[in-house]
Amino acid sequence: MGEEKKILYSGMQATNTLTLGNYLGALKNWVHLSEDYTCFFGVMDLHSLTVRQNPTEFRQNAKKLYALYVAAGLSPEENVLYFQSHVSAHAELAWILNCFTYMGELGRMTQFKDKSAKHADNVNAGLFTYPVLMAADILLYQADAVPVGADQKQHLEICRDIAERFNGIYGDVFTIPEPYIGKAGARIQSLSDPEKKMSKSDENPNGAVMLLDDRDTVLRKFKRAVTDSESAVRFDPEKKPGVSNLINIYSSVTGKTKEDVEAEFDGKGYGEFKAAVGEAVADELAPLQKKYEKLMAEKSWLEERIRENDQKAAYCANKTLRKVKKKVGLTEP
Ligand code: ATP
Ligand code: LTN
After folding, report:
1. CATH number, span 215-294
2. Ligand nearest 155 Cα, by number?
């Protein structure tokens, strides 16, 4: 028998459809990691409530996100793919951990500061305690590794602090998780403004390639991608952020190194290069989109997997929650 696999936990908020940045920076890496870890991936719908949602669109987006996880290659039979809000232990543990988290710690979170500025009319308490719910997500499953983008690193640090504080009082209840910051595709920039990251909430529709964009749209967006006044395909993020971003995307999709890409397009113009990147991305997305359409057409299969996975997640989460409740001295029901 081999060694028992370590536990990996991650998830995304269920807002809007995903971009190529979400795919190359997160989802695609998860698919690789899922071979080596026992994985839990959540559709983080409770976190999405920190920003006001339209209920109909929100419900659809959450289901779409689940289908995209599966279409991208995460098997719901090999991994636990579930909805955060379907497992009540998340909200329960978050409450308990709230009582082990200090206002000062939460006030230092840069995401809280950014989002409060962006949604100045709705600086709610959920936005403030967002990292505590995230800590509960991770700690419930005794995760060893948590793949996240650089923007989430601070949240992982506070999660470790809360877990260590709790363990310090009550003994070894929680596994202390390690962040796992991927390398390839770690940061895909906007096609229209390569100084900014590619984001779902970009105002310019040409800045972000969406995972469900059709071939013509993908090709058109790459054709319009902002570059520079030279014509050499050379990786230099400082001086040539646009072209460097395209090299990064192309190398992430094809698996070629940056040097190989430079050599491949040596002496060729930007027009040819942009067309090649567009084609490579469209080819990468085509099978994912086909699978997504198929999944959405036979919803009952997906719904059955969701039910099974919600139960598997709840089983693991409740084990930790029971232990926590006992440790803090809550009476048994
Ligand atoms: P928003 O536009 O609403 O801020 P987002 O597109 O940044 O959202 P998140 O839900 O915050 O998406 O992130 C989901 C995951 O995708 C995270 O792990 C994040 O690090 C990763 N990710 C998001 N955008 C990019 C990007 N441009 N490049 C690489 N990874 C990204
Ligand atoms: N905050 C994360 C989403 C998220 C998450 C988590 C990621 C919520 N809970 C637990 C990893 C582990 C984001 O915005 N990307």
Report:
1. 1.10.240.10
2. 2
